[in-house]
Write a structure and sequence with these properties.
The complex is a heterodimer of chains A (662) and B (357).
Chain A: E1 2-4, H1 5-11, H2 20-29, E2 34-40, E3 43-48, H3 60-71, E4 92-94, E5 101-108, H4 117-125, H5 134-146, E6 151-154, E7 162-166, E8 172-174, E9 180-182, E10 188-192, E11 195-199, E12 203-204, E13 216-223, H6 226-235, H7 241-248, H8 255-270, E14 273-281, E15 290-293, H9 294-301, H10 307-316, E16 320-323, E17 327-331, H11 342-353, H12 374-388, E18 392-393, E19 399-400, E20 427-428, H13 433-445, E21 450-462, E22 471-485, E23 495-496, H14 502-512, H15 517-522, E24 527-529, E25 538-546, E26 570-579, H16 584-599, E27 603-612, E28 621-630, H17 639-655, E29 659-660
Parallel strand pairs in A: 4-7, 18-21
Antiparallel strand pairs in A: 1-3, 2-3, 5-13, 5-14, 6-13, 7-10, 8-9, 10-11, 11-12, 15-17, 16-17, 19-20, 21-22, 22-23, 22-25, 24-25, 26-28, 26-29, 27-28
Helix pairs in contact in A: 1-3, 4-5, 5-8, 6-7, 9-11, 16-17
Chain B: H1 8-23, H2 27-38, H3 44-54, H4 57-97, H5 115-127, E1 133-134, E2 140-142, H6 143-146, E3 173-175, H7 181-190, H8 194-197, E4 200-209, E5 221-231, H9 236-251, E6 257-262, E7 267-276, E8 293-302, H10 304-309, E9 318-325, H11 326-334, H12 341-344, H13 347-354
Helix pairs in contact in B: 1-2, 1-4, 2-4, 3-4, 5-11
Classes of the chains: A alpha+beta (662), B alpha+beta (357).
Chain lengths: 662, 357
């Protein structure tokens, strides 16, 4: 909200002693921080941030009233001459409870003097330039000065009685912005006997607007139900100065005063002659009574606040306060719709005293703290491990474009957003790998040699048959490793991650994370397709696993002790010639089984430690160097027995077509 | 010695020997020299022995002495030179195996935790000693948890599809707009045993969504950390004490908090919390716009309607809640000029901002 400091000081003369910076701090401490200060041509305009619960400070007088309460200073009297009301010149029928009060007046306009410079200046500072139509300018000026929205109709365009009623379904009205609006039965309208002429509390109608030719005006200063006005403004996406103020709750007590001020301005500015003023309905009864005890006030404040001090502060903001044995009986003023419950009143007392006076203390521990959840700890452990293994943690959005491959076989239609930012963000994703792959490609495009990324986030799986949880969220780990590693120092050779053997590097990481062997084998989306950052057809390797598939570390802090042999272990190397199409797993499983059968508990381990492919080898063959390890828990092994076991393992390998390399 | 007793070629050899020895740059050359001067056959020494054998008897004594001196001199010199050359060869061999550790070392690959996760984990660590645990919940929420249970009125503009993402097939499901629905979920869960537990205190970190276009200060997805405590007799002073503790733990002992009145439907009283600018210490800088304070989070005492919605009696229990934007803190402490860096996943950004803890 824009506030001209000159107009503010006019309402609260004590502010003349307060500089702009001090004023900004004062406003912030009351809950209205200043977002911007605009100093121009000797005037200062503040952009004040007002919280959504405070309709009453959306004007110079309203804000001044709040400051006055804090400072304990007096407001300037409101310059208004109270009109004597007379007979209704035209019937006004209030047919809806959403409008309990409608003050009006009719004036004949004389020779226009024009809108005075001070009002023009204020309007300009409010970003609403004067229209040089005194009824319009005066209404706007009053809105910014005291906060009560009013409206002027061209009285000669209204047919018969004035009716405030719910709109008929499909009824139409053209508003001042020249847009035809189709109404619903929840819209409140001002109507005459021929139909709707204004959208109540939101915007006037085009057919009854004031023009330079207007001779007689009918003024409106009413009170409308905030909920109704908010709904209409939202429904028609029509947010106006009036709907903002009525929507937050105007002051019904100001309706007649605003009308009187408007009449007075039209007499002064436009040679107006009052024909008559009258009011339909009545000021609604004051808001409910709030009873607050000293105990609650002290609990909220963190210290004892004398009841008398609280009463004084509340009276300063316009509450009627009476002392009771238990505490205070508080009746909020007609403009404070935000003071509805005890907690609101307690806040008001703290606010007026100043939040800086609230003491500081740690709350006592009342029960046992709960442990950190295993899922959270698991993610933290995995993230730390991956970071130490050279992977960077990525964060990507939860929605992707609908071209996703839907790895869970669900129907992606049930994961679509109704109102996405764009088609490319319209689907709650079923995989992390699309975004990770894109991030990897971007990094390579920007010249990175190697990309290692991981992300842990939920993926979404639709389960339309499960009405309680139709979209499952499954925490998932995604990894991508692309480009080439090494080659940056004399000791580390280049490793092409994007090459076929690159998959082994990623599987090594997965094993370090304890991803179960079967999960690794079942994964079927290994390669990153697409040509990025060079001539290679694949840019690297990717993997995705639900976090619940990765086992938790055991419950105990450290595992149970298991004994190990202190006797020497014996290693033997076996170089085998195998076919180029030989699978590793069947061979190593057969050899392991043979070793276990032959050596029993003395068998430790067996694995391929080198692959040799060269034209010197027989055509179609390669050499795999196996290392076998044996160790007995209780005795030293002899060369003869180890020779026998190795021979048994070799036989097993031979039975699968392998041969000893000469 | 009488030089005339020795033939001219021996005398020349005697003269040439020091130079020839000096010229032997390796052991092979030295062995050839050794063969030529003191070898068993065909060497100068062998030749001298023949001369000695043939010499007249009366000269033998003198000549023998001279020959021995000459031969021993050569042998010793060759031996010394041999030791020298062997040392040199050992030194060369040792150098071949040596390595200059100042050469670029192989570095362990550098990974990193995402700066946003680092801040979340840090906050968990900061609040852990106060007894807070972590509550987590879904990103797809119901209107009931995201709005109703938080005292947000049915006509609140935040509910509109201009601000909140909704699912196409499920009109009641939305992407949570804040982590506050975790207040509702957690309170509903603990309500039946709240007496036994003696209240509840937790942090709820997570991803949230709002319908904002992507620009340097907005993102349709961002992170929040919600905090909540429910107990007996909880007031604003407890909120202030807790946040003052947390900010000191986060930003150092000089950190200080300032409360300003504010409004959120699910707290009453409500406040904005500023922290003394961690970059300039309050003297004024670009980050705090010369004010010495930066806005950090929104907080307040839990609205009685929120407790009542979950089935907790607000006349017995009271509490506070606070919610902070992780990106906001991250941008502030790191002076990162553009929010989009946090979601671009450029490794150069991640590695410099990430770290391992």
């Amino acid at each position: 909200m824009l506030i001209e400091t000159k107009a503010l000081r006019k309402e609260l003369p004590a502010l003349k002693r307060v500089g702009t910076k001090e004023l900004c701090e004062l406003l912030a401490s009351l809950g209205f921080p200043v977002d911007a200060v605009d100093e121009n041509d000797g005037s200062t305009v503040l952009d004040v941030d007002v919280t959504a619960n405070r309709g009453d400070v959306l004007s110079h007088r309203g804000l001044a009233r709040d400051i006055a309460a804090r400072l304990g200073e007096a407001m300037a009297p409101l310059a208004v001459k109270v009109l004597a009301e007379g007979e209704a010149l035209r019937p006004v029928r209030l047919e809806s409870p959403a409008c309990p009060l409608y003050a009006t007046a009719v004036l004949e306009l004389g020779k226009a003097q024009g809108t005075p410079a001070e009002a023009r200046e204020l309007l300009a500072h409010m970003g609403a330039n004067a229209k040089d139509l005194p009824p319009v300018d005066a209404s706007n000026e009053i809105l910014h000065r005291i906060g009560h929205p009013t409206h002027a109709f061209d009285a000669d365009t209204i047919h018969g009685a004035l009716i405030v009623r719910w709109a008929r379904v499909g009824e139409k009205v053209v508003t001042l912005d020249e847009v035809e609006r189709t109404l619903t039965a929840q819209d409140l309208v001002i109507a005459d006997e021929e139909g709707a002429i204004a959208l109540a509390g939101v915007m006037g109608g085009n057919s009854t607007k004031v023009t330079p030719a207007t001779r007689r005006v009918l003024l409106e200063s009413a009170y409308f139900d905030p909920r109704t006005i908010r709904a209409t403004a939202q429904r028609h996406n029509l947010h106006t100065d009036a709907s903002l103020r009525f929507g937050r709750g105007a002051d019904p007590g100001m309706a007649m005063t605003a009308r009187d001020m408007l009449v007075q301005r039209l007499e002064d500015w436009a040679g107006g002659r009052l024909v008559g003023a009258w009011t339909a309905g009545s000021v609604p009864p004051p808001a409910q009574v709030v009873r607050i005890s000293g105990e609650v006030m002290s609990r909220v404040a963190g210290e004892t606040i004398p009841v008398e001090e609280a009463a004084t502060l509340l009276e300063r903001v316009g509450c009627r306060v009476e002392s009771e044995p238990e505490g205070l009986r508080v009746v909020p003023p007609s403009w404070r719709h935000d003071l509805g419950i005890v907690d609101d009143v307690a806040e008001e007392v703290l606010r007026l005293r100043g939040y800086e006076r609230i003491p500081s203390a740690l709350p006592p521990l009342e029960g046992s703290p709960e442990p950190l959840s295993r899922d959270y700890l698991k993610r933290r452990r995995i993230a730390a491990l991956l970071a130490h293994l050279g992977f960077c943690q990525a964060v990507t959005f939860g929605f992707v474009d609908p071209g996703e491959d839907s790895p869970h076989g669900d129907d992606p239609a049930f994961r679509r957003l109704k109102n996405p930012l764009g088609e490319e963000y319209s689907l709650m994703r079923g995989t992390l790998l699309r975004d990770l792959r894109d991030a990897a490609a971007t990094n390579l495009d920007r010249g990175a040699r190697e990309v290692r990324l991981f992300e842990m986030a939920p993926v979404f799986i639709s389960r339309p048959q499960d009405s309680a949880a139709p979209v499952e969220e499954r925490w998932t780990l995604g990894l991508v490793w692309a480009g080439e590693a090494g080659g940056e120092d004399p000791l580390t050779p280049v490793r092409k991650i994007a090459a076929p053997e690159g998959k082994s590097y990623l599987i090594g990481i997965l094993k370090a994370l304890s991803v179960p062997e079967q999960v690794i084998r079942d994964f079927d989306r290994w390669t990153l397709s697409g040509v990025v950052g060079g001539a290679q057809g694949h840019l690297g390797w990717q993997f995705e696993v639900p976090l619940d598939a990765i086992p938790d570390p055991p419950e105990r802090v450290i595992p149970t002790f298991t004994s190990f042999s202190r006797l020497p272990s014996v290693a033997r190397d076996l170089s085998l010639l195998v076919g180029l199409d030989q699978g590793y797993l069947p061979l190593v499983e057969a050899m392991t089984a043979a070793a276990r059968t032959a050596a029993g508990e003395s068998f430790q381990d067996l694995r391929c430690v080198d692959v040799f492919r060269h034209k010197s080898l027989p055509e179609g063959r390669q050499a795999w160097l196996f290392r076998l390890r044996f160790q007995n828990p209780s005795r030293t092994l002899t060369g003869e027995e180890v020779d026998q076991w190795v021979a048994a393992v070799l036989d097993a390998a031979k039975s699968l077509g392998a041969g000893l390399r000469g | 010695m009488e030089p005339s007793l020795l033939p001219i070629e021996i005398l020349e050899a005697r003269q040439d020997f020091p130079k020839a020895l000096e010229a032997c740059k390796d052991l092979d050359a030295l062995m050839r020299l050794k063969g030529a001067f003191v070898g068993r056959e065909g060497s100068h020494a062998a030749r001298m022995m023949e001369i000695l054998k043939a010499a007249p008897k009366e000269q033998k004594r003198e000549l023998g002495g001279a020959i021995n001196t000459l031969k021993n001199g050569w042998e010793e010199a060759i031996k010394a030179r041999q030791a020298e050359l062997e040392d040199a060869r050992k030194r060369a061999a040792a150098l071949g195996k040596a390595w200059d550790p100042d050469l670029p070392p192989p570095m362990p690959p550098q990974g990193s935790l995402h700066p946003l996760n680092r801040i979340i984990d840090r906050l968990v660590d900061v609040f852990r000693p106060l007894g807070y645990h972590v509550e987590e919940g879904p990103e797809i929420e119901t209107e009931a948890h995201n709005f109703d249970g938080l005292n947000i009125p049915a006509d609140h503009p935040a509910r509109s599809s201009a601000d909140t993402f909704y699912l196409e097939k499920y009109p009641e499901l939305l992407l949570r707009t804040h982590t506050s629905p975790m207040e509702v979920r957690t309170l509903l869960r603990v309500a039946p045993q709240i007496e036994k537990k003696g209240g509840i205190r937790f942090l709820a970190p997570g991803r949230v969504y709002r319908k904002d276009e992507i620009d340097p200060t907005h993102s349709p997805m961002f992170h929040q950390v919600e905090g909540m405590l429910v107990g007996h007799g909880i007031g604003m002073h407890h909120l202030k004490g807790t946040l003052a503790y947390a900010m000191k733990a986060l930003f150092g002992p000089d950190a200080d908090v300032r409360f300003r009145p504010s409004y959120f439907p699910f707290v009453e009283p409500g406040c904005e919390v500023d922290v003394r600018c961690p970059l300039c210490g309050g003297s004024g800088c670009r980050v705090c716009k010369q004010s010495g304070w930066v806005e950090l989070l929104g907080a307040g005492l839990t609205h009685p309607n929120v407790l009542a919605y979950a089935g907790i009696d607000p006349n017995v229990w009271s509490g506070f809640a606070f919610g902070m934007g992780v990106e906001r803190i991250a941008m502030m402490v790191s002076e990162t000029p553009d929010l989009r860096f946090f979601f671009e996943n450029d490794q150069r950004f991640l590695k410099t901002m990430g770290g391992l803890n």
